Amino acid sequence: MSLPLSEGCLHRLVVESGGDCPLRGEKIDFKWKDSAESFKREVSRKLEDIRDGRKIVFNSYSTTPTIEKLRELGFFVLGADGNLARKYSNKIFSYNLARELGIGVPYGVVANSFEEAMDNFRNVFSNSEDGVFMTAVRGAGGRSAKHLRNLEEISDFEASPPFLMTAWERKIASPNSQVLISRDRVYYLGLSDQIIVRDVNYFGNIFPSRIDSRSKEEIRKASIKLAEVMRKEGYVGFCGFDWIVTEDGRVLFSEINARKNRSTSILVASLEANRPSNRLSISEMELYASLGMEIGEEDLWEPDKNICWAMRIFKTYGRAKITKDIDPIYDDRSIFDGRGARSSVLNFPERGTFLPGFDVPHDLARIIAVGSDYEEVERLVEAERERIRESYMKIRH
C-alpha cells in the first residue's frame, strides 16, 4: 500500500500511536527523546492497524530530512535518492546545467555575498530596465526569491548567499513541465501554466497550458534533455521544470523541481482521468521506477483535451486546520465523477490558534476544479475561494 507522506502526517502517526516524539510539524530537528529504533517501532505499530499484512511504501512529497531518516531506518520510500534530489534542486547548479546543454536561460551571474549582489545590481545589471530576479540556492513556491527594483531591496532579502541573479524578463506565461524518470527511459507527462501572484509567488496551476505549440514542443524537448542527464546519474521518480515564455516569444529555463510538487498532481489527475483500462496507472509506474523495474510501457496516452483542470492554493494564514485534504495524485482515477470544484475541508478555530504539536500553523489548503475551459474553471475556483473566505470571516469576527 502507498501512503502520501508529509511532515505533519508523520507527526500525527507518532502522536496518535502514543509515542513521545517532539517532531514539530514542518520544522523538524530530530532531537528525539526516544531512540531511532523506538521511533521506528512507534510508526510501525500505528501502521500495523491499516496495512493488513501488506508492505508499507511511503509516497513522499519531497526529499526532506524526515524522508532520509525513514530510509535510514529501513522503510521503503518512493522517489529519488536524497543526494541527487538536492543536487538537481540547487538553483545555481541547474541554471548552469541548462546553459551547458544549450537550453535558453536568462542572462545571469552568481553573488556569493550581499556586497557582491549589490555590486552586480549596480554594474552587471545597470541596463536592465525591469530590474533583477534574485533567488537563493534553495526555495519553493516563490520563497527565497524576489524581483528587485532597487538596491535597498537587496538588504531586505530574507535568505543567505550564494544567490543567483538574472535579468528580469517580461513574460506572458510561467509553464511547468513534468516527467517521470525510470531506470530505462523518461516519460514526458505534459505541461501546465502556473498561477503566479506578485511576480514570484506560486499559487497553483491550470491544465492544459495555453502557450503556443512551438513553445510547447521546445519545452518538451528541453525537459527530456535535462531529464536524460538525471536518469543517467541514477535519478528516478517525478521531476518538474519551470519555464518562462517571454513577450517576444523566447522560451527560457527557470529551475528544476527534483521532487513531486503541486504541479505534478494536476497533470497526473488529468492523465488518470483518461487512462486506458489496459495501462498501468501513473502511481504504479512511479513504484516500478523506484524499485528499478522495467515499466515496459510505450509513450503515455493523451489526456482529454476537452477538459480543463485547475489547482489553486488557498492561504488561511494560520487560522484554519485542514481536517481532510485532497490530492488527485493518489487517486487511481479522476477525483470527479463529473465537473465542478472541491477543496480541502477546513475547520476554522479561534483567531491565532495553533495546531497541537506544531511550531507554526498550517496555512495552505487546495481547491481543485474541473471544467470545459479556462473561463469555467476560473469561475469555479473563485466561487470556492469566496465560499471559504466567507466561512473564515464569520469565525474571525
TL;DR?
Helices cover 33% and strands 25% of the residues.
State the main characteristics.
alpha+beta, 4-stranded antiparallel beta sheet, disordered N terminus, 18 strands, 9-stranded antiparallel beta sheet, D-amino Acid Aminotransferase, Chain A, domain 1, Dna Ligase, domain 1, 397 residues
Low-confidence stretches: 1-35, 330-335, 351-362
Tell me the β content.
25-35%
- Total strands: the figure is 18
Looking at CATH, which topology of the largest domain would you report? Answer: D-amino Acid Aminotransferase, Chain A, domain 1
- Tell me about the biggest sheet? 9 strands, antiparallel
Order of helices and strands: EHHEHEHHEHEEHEEEEEHEEHHEEEEEH
The CATH architecture term of the largest domain is 2-Layer Sandwich
CATH class of the largest domain: Alpha Beta
Count of individual helical segments: 11
What structural category arises from helix and sheet content? alpha+beta
